[in-house]
Amino acid sequence: MFEQSTNQAKNQREAPSAGAGFLGIDTRTAARPASRGLERFTAPTVLIQNIDLETGEISTTVSTPKGEKQYKTPQQARAERFALKSVVNQIFPNSRFSKCCRCRRDRGGVTIQKSKKHGKAHYGGLVICGSVWACPVCAAKIAERRRSELVAATSAAQMMGLQVALATFTVPHGLGDDINVILDQMMSAWRFMTKQKSYKKFRDILGLVGTVRALETTHGLNGFHPHFHVLLFCKSDNPGFAAAAEWLLRPLWLHACVKSGLPEPSFDRGVKVDDGSRAAQYVSKWGLEDEITKGHFKTSKGINGRSPWDLLRSVLVDDCDKSRRLFAVYAQAFKGRRQLYWSNGLRDLLGLNKEATDEELAEIQEDDAFELASISIEEWRGVLFTRSEAALLDLAEREPVKIPEFLAALAAVSQHAVKR
Predict the structure, then answer these.
(1) Which of 86, 105, 113 minimizes the C-alpha distance to 97?
(2) What 8-state DSSP symbol labels residue 289?
(3) Do 93 and 120 meet the contact criterion of CB atoms below 8 Å apart?
(4) 177-210 burial, b if ≥16 CB within 10 A, otherwise e?
């Protein structure tokens, strides 16, 4: 059904309906084609503004006074996350990543839960890996909850009269550099810099009361490019304090890099500090694609500056073996590292609760969620076999009355394939 819809679109040079496929994303590599008889469960036809006729990827174009911008619907974004996760499962078979959102927890049952407040459906009773680096499904949950904390933090800072700036710290890197070594040296450089007397003087001059440091990386022509994004919370009424912070931080960071075994960054590129408007923009865009804790969600159209998720997209669409190997290197290098770090005392100062771990954030369920349906072992096998995880959640949000019939159809597809 996926291939048929895509071919029709290519022949007629027009966009198919949103019901062209269960996942609603790349039609060549997404879900297995469903068997006949499942068509009535697909989404209702909607006006599609844009479609990539090479990949079949559908997006919505929104017109604004500043022009047009394409967005995936929440359902399309969720479908893509499950599709990208299927790539991770292939790269790391039998790992905790591959078991996440697939294996039952403690031999219990699988359920479909739905939030009364938001109307969103999700699965219950499944193993959760809680990896913010390698699992697209868990990473989305964790980053969204981190986002809400940062929004609360910046709002509280504004109420207290604090200024917030956004600093970016980079280091020179080459194609043959070991990402594990670079990451260790970067962390060492940060610790060295923040323990120096000169950094304490910097804090006193600008009234720095705390920082939130985020670790991010991309991959381009010069290999992996790890860097820090840091929110600086300062007691300052000086409108030019961002420029002053940049001028003061540059020599400190350059010296720390050299002391930690890294090449010395160029004076004009090693540190960049933007004012509060840029910091606010960074925080406010978390729910989209360009934010401080979702840097690895960013989408690049070129080969330079690709995010880890772009590497997965390359495997999904083009079966690129190089991208597959690069993602494996990235996931192993970042495993166990903290993506977001709050300086001591900042959360208390801003009135935030104790910080939760990535695993705890991934496990959080909606307080008002209720059980919409229970899924048997045979039915869940059918869901996994047809890769219909996202399609089932879409149906649960749209027409929950059809869930039993849909599950029965998926189970029949799976059983028929096993018999063959």
Answers:
(1) 86
(2) T
(3) no
(4) bebeebbebbbbbbebbbeeeebeebbeebebbb
Report residue 67: phi and psi, to 5°: 125, -165
What are the tokens at 127?
A: 């193993």
Query: Mind listing the pLDDT tens digit of every residue in the chain (420 residues)?
Result: 333 433 443 343 333 333 322 222 222 333 343 344 454 454 444 434 444 433 333 344 544 455 555 567 888 889 999 999 999 999 999 999 999 999 998 777 899 999 998 899 999 999 999 999 999 999 988 988 888 898 899 999 999 999 999 999 999 988 889 999 999 999 999 999 999 999 999 999 999 999 999 999 999 989 999 999 999 999 987 778 899 999 999 999 999 999 999 999 988 889 999 987 777 777 766 533 333 344 444 454 455 679 999 999 999 999 999 999 999 999 999 999 999 999 999 999 999 999 999 999 999 887 789 999 999 999 999 999 999 999 999 999 999 999 999 999 999 998 877 776
